[in-house]
Design brief:
The chain has 669 residues and is α+β, with helices and mostly antiparallel strands. It has 3 domains: 33-189 and 453-523, FAD/NAD(P)-binding domain, CATH 3.50.50.60; 260-378, no CATH class; 538-668, Galactose-binding domain-like (Jelly Rolls, Sandwich). Helix content is 20%, strand content 24%.
Length: 669
């Protein structure tokens, strides 16, 4: 099922001539080669799978990507257009390049190592970026490759077999799927569900009855209100809820990230086959109790479109309907995905059309619809179910809450994560005769933290040539922070790099020198520590030495993208009085490029004067802090003396909004 060919890349793998088109699809006759050989075999055409393949190709090795379905790009092209980035500056390597390429697609400019990054985007734009990466690298992608077996010789995978008989061989393998199917076929240990807090010395794992996305009004859970003997409404567990911190096999809820629009061309929400208003009785009772919304999010991603997600007690998350998904086969998963689609489409139909609902709810909901130019092959509905967690590997290093909080730090980092420890609800229970949601956790982390190399490789005795950058070794709550698309891309690049290095050295991947791996990762732009450093580079954070202030500056963390623990602002007052100076202690005299960083928002000043004090005098620049947030913005290259003679001064006189002071960077030119 190849796409139309717009530009072609021809090369040989395993005797088969493969054609990779400009749209990233593979045009190859069925079973053109019964056996395909490559240096790296990647399972899963997710964002991670694509990045792993691109990295292998950039290191001069052959690579193939096997995808059991028909969708390319996973959640990144499947509706998740508002990136859960945490601290964007911690995203390096090809992941950072991806977001710079997104910006360049919108701006119509060439991508460079210093291009701005954009973390919100329409699905088709993300797909276009991945198509470019695949075409440029010459990566063949095989769709419809459902695995039926993984042969091993000792502790090494030798080949994978798809259910159509196609065989793929190579010295190294990557499981980039959301489900961990290759990991399981290879006999690697894994777990599903929530650990008890006591298992790893955590505090927010296991059962968590908390306040997030919770019912704010009492709702009766029984089929006949007030009568427990009548049974419970669909989706509610009659089992008494266990104590907080108790282990179980439940996982956080899945949904689809809808791409919505209010344009006149919007596609009305479809009524799915098998729709029954009775499936939404719980929501109807909640509305009768007085709840008026919101029922879903509408985060703008550009083009008049949204990335719409779960919001509130009863929303797009199909709570409790995914417990069997991680260990199911392909057909059963397809059925569960269809159940989720039917539930969510029915939810939107119910909110837009049920005559019992207040007119305001129906009017508000029906003002939205599906974007007509997205997901055209699947009726404008996202083709990728949001599998928030499935299997998780158990290996020599299991990432835990303590890693996320920074109380322990892995000595063998291969990338950074920085997002909130985030679990969606896992079940609906009855407490005191009313329904409650259980499992939602949203606890921030103090800053970017390292992810261990050992957490993406199995125990050597189990498999010596398989990397698992998506279903990595992490507890339920730590995975809630790590499970973000940029992090998956980061870990996949590191995995592919290690695969190539281990192949060259003829080593089991567990015995690869971390120093050797880290050197190559840094050379390719990966960030392995926080804050990042480079030879001669000096970063002055608002919390560090070298900062002097005049007037009053207030600390904040309300807008993401800041460097370090927080940033400061002038409270939009005392203009001309409030000033803040970053003074570096430079190791040597010479040319340095000075950068400034801030968090962007519409309430920021668009005309902030910046004085750069250098050996040649003072140069003034004006920056617009309403844009370019969460990145290093160049102020120019200047000559500085060694020591503390130079500085960057943020002034506030005449500014037309909040002025932000976060950090300054001085990089040898």
């Amino acid at each position: 099922m190849p796409h139309l060919i717009t530009r072609r890349h021809l090369f040989k793998i395993g005797g088969a001539t493969l054609i990779v088109t400009g749209s990233g699809a593979l045009a190859v006759p069925a079973l053109a080669a019964a056996v395909v050989d490559a240096d790296l075999v990647v399972y899963g055409a997710t964002s991670a799978g694509i990045v792993a393949a691109v990295q292998a190709r950039r290191m001069g090795r052959t690579c193939v990507v096997l995808e059991p379905g028909t969708h390319l790009g996973g959640l990144t092209t499947g509706g998740l257009g508002m990136t859960d980035s945490g601290t964007p500056a911690s995203i390096g390597g090809i992941a950072g390049e991806f977001y710079r390429r997104v910006h360049s697609k919108y701006a119509g400019t060439p991508v460079t190592p210093t291009s701005p990054a954009r973390y919100t985007f329409e699905p088709h734009v993300a797909r276009a970026v991945f198509d470019d990466l695949i075409a440029e690298a010459g990566v063949p992608v095989y769709f419809g490759m459902k695995l039926s077996g993984a042969a091993k010789a000792g502790n090494r995978i030798t080949q994978l077999t798809a259910d159509n008989g196609q065989v793929f061989r190579g010295p190294m393998f990557v499981d980039a799927s959301y489900e961990g199917d290759l990991m399981a076929l290879a006999g690697v240990g894994f777990t599903v569900g929530r650990e008890a807090n006591a298992a790893y010395g955590e505090t927010i794992n296991g059962v968590q009855l908390r306040s997030g996305h919770q019912f704010t009004l009492p709702v009766d859970p029984y089929v006949v209100p007030g009568n427990p003997g009548s049974g419970v409404l669909p989706g509610i567990s009659p089992t008494p809820v266990a104590a907080n911190g108790t282990a179980d096999t439940r996982i956080q809820a899945y949904n689809y990230r809808m791409c919505l629009t209010q344009s006149a061309a919007r596609v009305p929400f479809p009524q799915p086959a098998g729709y029954s208003a009775a499936d939404y009785e719980l929501l109807w009772r909640y509305i009768q109790a007085g709840y008026t919304g919101p029922f879903f999010t509408t985060h703008s991603v550009g083009g008049g479109k949204t990335d719409s997600n779960n919001n509130g007690a009863v929303s797009t998350d199909f709570i409790g309907a995914n417990y069997t998904y991680p260990l199911s086969g392909y057909a059963a998963r397809d059925s569960l995905a269809a159940d989720h689609r039917r539930y969510q489409q029915g939810l939107m139909w119910f909110l837009a059309n049920d005559p019992r609902l207040p007119a305001g709810i129906r009017t508000s909901t029906s003002s939205w619809g599906l974007a007509p130019d997205e997901f055209t092959a699947t009726g404008n509905w996202p083709p990728q179910l949001y599998v928030r967690e499935a299997r998780r590997m158990v290996s020599a290093y299991v990432m835990t809450e303590r890693d996320c909080r920074g109380t322990v730090k892995a000595a063998d980092p291969v990338g950074l994560a920085s997002y909130t420890m985030d679990s969606h609800n896992c079940q609906r229970v009855i407490v005191g005769g009313v329904v409650r949601n259980e499992g939602d956790v949203q606890i921030g982390v103090p800053g970017p933290y390292p992810i261990s190399y050992r957490s993406i490789v199995p125990a050597e005795a189990q498999c010596a040539n398989l990397f698992v950058p998506v279903c990595l070794a992490a507890t339920h709550i730590a995975y809630g922070s790590i499970r973000m698309e940029p992090v998956f891309m980061i870990l996949a690049q590191s995995a592919a790099t290690a695969a190539v290095l281990a192949t060259s050295a003829a080593l089991p991947i567990q015995q690869l020198s971390h120093a050797t791996l880290a050197a190559r990762l840094r050379a390719d732009g990966q960030l392995l520590q926080w804050p990042p450093t480079s030879t001669g580079e000096v970063i002055v954070d608002n919390n560090g030495a070298g900062v002097t202030r005049a007037g009053t500056w207030l600390r904040s963390t309300s807008i993401a993208g800041y460097w370090g623990a927080d940033y400061e602002h002038d409270d939009n007052t005392a203009k001309g009085v409030n000033r803040l100076r970053f003074t570096p202690n430079l190791p040597a005299a010479g040319g340095y490029t000075a950068y400034l960083r801030w968090t962007a928002h519409a309430n920021r000043a668009g005309n902030v004067p910046i004085d750069i004090v250098h050996s040649g005098g003072i140069t003034t620049r004006t920056v617009d802090q309403r844009v370019s947030g969460g990145q290093w913005v160049s102020l120019g290259t200047f000559t500085f003396a060694a020591g503390t003679a130079g500085s960057v001064l943020i002034r506030t006189e005449g500014t037309d909004g909040y002025v932000i002071a976060d950090a300054a960077r001085f990089l040898p030119a």
